[in-house]
């Protein structure tokens, strides 16, 4: 269900279950985690095959779970989302078509989210008595702010790509999101790692600023010659 291919500095990870809109079962979650965390490439591009990015949890699986099994399935999804978020490579989500429920949560765990004009987003679980339990109640207000997060999560409404961009759910709307992954991969791999670690750092502001200064100094020392050569150039 999860395909992996290498393309230079980008590892392409494809959710490949289009007949089920790339809905995820427990084994699929494990395959996804392995595909992202085992990447040697500095950038992972995550996308879905067919007309959806990801429909979230496979409801055929969820319907048969006991209370304890349902709790473990939620914890399983949380662990995988956390693994994607903390993975060493920069993870770029290319969202083309529908992202629903756990698919939105998976996208939220990625470092960069880019949509096509055909992308749509929704947390429809409230319509049948569920909600996003793969870290969505944590990441959604962090990304959107509490007000917009409440609106999206409580209404179950569908958000189109342009509104998703306005809300901050995605950073760009483009025809080919993979080009953004390649744009990121064109940069220095160790600089990408440092920036990701610093922006994801949960420590206090003062400690983060100290770490930021130290990482900046390391990179300046490492690339002093390149910086000197480029200082008279433009962006």
UniProtKB/TrEMBL annotation:
InterPro entries: ClpP/crotonase-like_dom_sf, Enoyl-CoA_hyd/isom_CS, Enoyl-CoA_hydra/iso. Coiled coil: none annotated. Pfam families: ECH_1 (PF00378). Gene3D superfamilies: 2-enoyl-CoA Hydratase, Chain A, domain 1. CDD domains: crotonase-like. Belongs to the enoyl-CoA hydratase/isomerase family. This is Enoyl-CoA hydratase/isomerase family protein. It comes from Halobium salinum.
């Amino acid at each position: 269900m999860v395909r992996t291919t290498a393309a230079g500095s980008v590892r392409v990870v494809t959710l490949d279950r289009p007949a089920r809109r790339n809905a995820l079962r427990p084994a699929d979650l494990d395959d996804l985690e392995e595909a992202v965390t085992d990447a040697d490439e500095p950038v992972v591009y995550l996308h879905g095959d067919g007309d959806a990015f990801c429909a979230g949890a496979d409801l055929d699986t969820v319907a048969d779970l006991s209370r304890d099994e349902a709790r473990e399935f939620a914890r399983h999804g949380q662990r995988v989302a956390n693994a994607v978020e903390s993975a060493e490579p920069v993870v770029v989500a290319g969202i083309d078509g529908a992202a629903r429920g756990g698919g939105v949560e998976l996208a939220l765990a990625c470092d960069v989210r880019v949509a096509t004009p055909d992308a749509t987003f929704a947390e429809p679980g409230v319509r049948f008595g569920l909600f996003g339990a793969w870290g969505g109640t944590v990441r959604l207000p962090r990304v959107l702010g509490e007000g917009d997060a409440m609106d999206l999560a409580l209404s179950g409404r569908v958000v189109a790509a342009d509104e998703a961009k306005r809300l901050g759910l995605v950073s760009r709307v483009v025809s080919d999101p993979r080009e953004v992954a390649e744009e990121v991969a064109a940069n220095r791999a160790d600089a990408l790692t440092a920036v990701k670690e610093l922006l994801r750092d949960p420590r206090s502001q003062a400690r983060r600023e100290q770490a930021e200064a130290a990482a900046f100094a390391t990179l300046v020392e490492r690339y002093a010659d390149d910086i000197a050569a480029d200082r008279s150039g433009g962006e």
